[in-house]
Design a protein that fits this description.
elongated, about 140 residues, mainly alpha, 2 domains
């Protein structure tokens, strides 16, 4: 198992390598280590920690994961297994992520995902078609 110092050194040298160490479960489960990983600012590491070490959501890993729209979407799908205001808001920083969040997590349109999706013309068209298909059902 890695120590706190090992984790800092790995992160400073190569943050992607830290994600691999977490994925391989070489990082211990502890509040101190979780806080360190979340404070390092890498959404991927927080996401992988939640999946492989905590094996579930925590407020700390969710907040860290939400620093990136893609990781926020993945967190909602794979860890929370449903929507939260925090993951939706983070996913809505990107039009495409907002659309897939509405499709796969909310499983229906919301004002927040619609507003975000409509910032991009291509995504706007897809979102409108999807909304119309729901109305026909």
């Amino acid at each position: 198992m890695l120590t706190k110092e090992d984790i800092i050194l790995i992160f400073l040298e190569d943050p992607e390598n830290l994600a691999m160490e977490i994925w391989n479960e070489n990082v211990p489960k502890s509040d101190e280590i979780r806080t360190l990983i979340c404070e390092l600012g890498n959404p991927d590491c927080a996401y992988w920690y939640a999946i492989y070490i905590d094996k579930g959501p925590t407020d700390e890993t969710r907040t860290a994961g939400c620093r990136d729209p893609w990781r926020a979407y993945c967190y909602a799908m794979n860890i929370d297994k449903g929507p939260t205001d925090e993951t939706r808001t983070a996913a809505c920083q990107d039009s495409f992520r907002a659309h897939i969040y509405a499709l796969n997590v909310d499983k229906g349109p919301t004002d927040e995902t619609r507003t975000a999706a409509f910032r991009n013309e291509n995504v706007k068209d897809c979102y409108k078609q999807w909304e119309n298909s729901l109305k026909k059902k």
